[in-house]
Structures are given as C-alpha cells and as structure tokens.
Design a protein that fits this description.
One of its GO terms (molecular function) is ABC-type vitamin B12 transporter activity. By secondary structure, the protein is mainly α. The chain has helices spanning about 1-15, 25-45, 50-75, 80-90, 95-110, 115-120, 135-165, 170-185, 200-225, 230-240, 250-260, 290-319, and strands at about 265, 270, 275, 280. Helix content is about 75%, strand content about 5%. Helix 7 (about 135-165) packs parallel to helix 12 (about 290-319).
Length: about 325
C-alpha cells in the first residue's frame, strides 16, 4: 500500500504545484549534462553517429549513478527524509500540470495576437513557428498536448509502475526521462543532429513503444467519458496511427484528431529544413482554441484511468 500512497501523492503534488520557478528540477540538470557532453563529443569524435551512442550511454551512466548516490545519502540522513526525497524526485517526472500551464499560454497568447500565440508555441515545439497561421498554431498546440500525454504523463507513470514492481521506481523513471530529454534536444532527423541524435531518437522510440499503445487506448476511453467522438477516435487510431515519422507519436495524435474530428500532421519546417509528414484525421472541422482545452481534458482523464489501472494491477499482484 505504501507504493500506492506514494504514487497518488506524486500525482496530487503535480496537479497542485506543477513546476514552480526556482525549484531544483532534475530535467534542467539533465539538459545541462547533455549540452556539456554534446560539446565534448562534437569536439573529439569525428564520427558523430558513433558519438551519439557514447552520448546516450555516458549520460545514462552519470544520471543513474547520481540517483543512487542521492537515494543512499538520503537514507543515511533519515528514512523519513529518504521518503520525502523519493516522492519529490518522482513528482518531478510527471508533467501534466506543467504541460497544461504552458499550453494554456498559447491559448491566451492567441487571444492577444497571432504573434503571441506563435511565441508561446515556439517554447513547446521544435518546428519553426514564425509564419504559422492561427489554425496551424492551434494544431501545433493540440499535437504537442497529445504527444506529451504519452511522453510527459503516461510513459513516466508506466516506468514508475514497472520500477515499483522491481524495487527501483526512480531509476526507471530517470532513465526514461533522460532518454526523452536527449530525444527532445538532439533526436532530430535534420542537421546538425541527424547523426549524433540517432541513438537517442531510437532509444526514445523503444521506450515509448508500449506506453504509446496502452496510453492511446486509455485516451479513446477518455474521449468516451468526456462525451467526445470516441468512435471516430478509434476509427482514426486504427487507420492513421502509422501516419507519422515517429513509430509512436501517430497513436495519441490519431486519437485526438478523431475525437475532435480535425486533421493533424502535414508539412513543417525544422531548422530551415522542410519536413513532409503525412496527415492524420479528416478535415471535418476547423481547429479552434477550445479544442486545445478538450485535448488537455483528455490528458487528465487518461492520467486518472492509467493510474487506476496500475493500482488494480498492483493490488492483484501483491494482495
């Protein structure tokens, strides 16, 4: 029962606190570590493809060793302090409230001007937002919310759950978060990251494979509970789940596109390179700002359903 209480505490903390400015956050330190190692690898590795594997392996080693030292140190201080540190570290791995806050800024920005909407979207996506239309900004916000329902919520919960079952929830969570952070920083299919980011991108694909598929099923169920078009979400999921360059991102995007009866995907610009992507969903409706809010609701309900699923599985195994 202690693990269940910890998990619920972590989720409630995320809902209440989000990511307060100024608080120490492991992802920030992971980002600094990745930047430092990337500079070293670019300097000393002629073959950046091989260097990318070194970047992945060394950063994983450093992060997992650091986690072990922190946990052992906190236990030496006091078991209660160890529990507090455990809850805090797990809490930093869930990004539902943070995503909610940042995506809402896009909505508020659009109410002010298209330029403000583009600016806030640029903080969330890797594509060039400078010339996007209002409709494209809305689609971008919906897409990133759908993708991060898996990357920022379901996958972290999945690896926390697996970690609880084997006794290492923070190690599993931080290994996932590091790989996901690597992918967001260097895992692009265009230069200058094509070679150095290959290993990280593939590792992220592997780690998100199961969460994307399980999570998408819960997203369909969430669409039903929210009285959205869940039948169409299932239809588009089955039809268009592979209409994405990522083997995983097409799943949550297809669910949301179907539930909202809009079309996502298409051609985007990354680092001055045009990247053509297939479309997902049908052009039944024009994207509107309220649909961003609907996608946020899908995220929260999916989180609740997945947490309930884990608790049931955990109780069946241990009781």
């Amino acid at each position: 029962m202690e693990n269940i209480i910890v998990l619920i505490s972590v989720i409630v903390m995320d809902w209440l606190l989000g990511d307060p400015l100024g608080w120490p956050h492991p992802i920030i330190y992971m980002g600094k570590l990745i930047q430092t190692l990337e500079k070293i690898i670019r300097k000393y590795f002629e073959n950046l493809f091989v260097g990318g594997f070194f970047l992945l392996g060394l950063s994983l080693f450093i992060v997992l060793i650091s986690v072990s030292i922190i946990l052992k140190g906190s236990m030496v201080i006091h078991p209660y302090f160890h529990t507090i540190v455990t809850i805090y570290l797990l809490y930093t791995g869930i990004a539902a409230k943070c995503l909610h806050t940042e995506v809402k800024k896009v909505i508020k920005g659009l109410y002010q001007s298209i330029e403000e909407g583009r600016k806030y979207l640029s903080y969330l996506v890797g594509r060039d937002t400078a010339n996007l239309t209002q409709e494209q900004v809305i689609k971008g916000a919906i897409e990133t919310t759908a993708e991060n329902t898996i990357d920022g919520v379901i996958a972290p919960l999945f690896y926390i759950g697996i970690g609880f079952l084997v006794g290492y929830p923070i190690h599993f969570l931080f290994a996932y978060k590091l790989v996901n952070t690597l992918d967001s920083m260097v895992g692009y299919i265009v230069e200058p990251y094509k070679d150095i980011g290959f290993a990280s991108a593939k590792a992220d694909d592997i780690l998100n494979y199961i969460p994307a598929r399980i999570g998408s099923l819960f997203m369909v169920l969430s669409s039903l509970l929210l009285k959205l078009n869940w039948k169409n979400s299932w239809r588009i999921l089955v039809r268009d789940r592979r209409n994405h360059k990522s083997p995983n991102c097409g799943y949550p995007e297809a669910v949301v596109a179907g539930a909202l009866k809009i079309q996502l995907g298409g051609t985007h610009k990354y680092f001055d390179t045009i990247v053509e992507k297939p479309t997902i969903g049908d052009l039944d409706k024009k994207p509107e700002s309220v649909m961003i809010e609907d996608t946020i609701k899908i995220m929260y309900v999916t989180e609740l359903l997945f947490t309930l699923f884990f608790i049931i599985v955990y109780l069946l195994i241990y009781f």
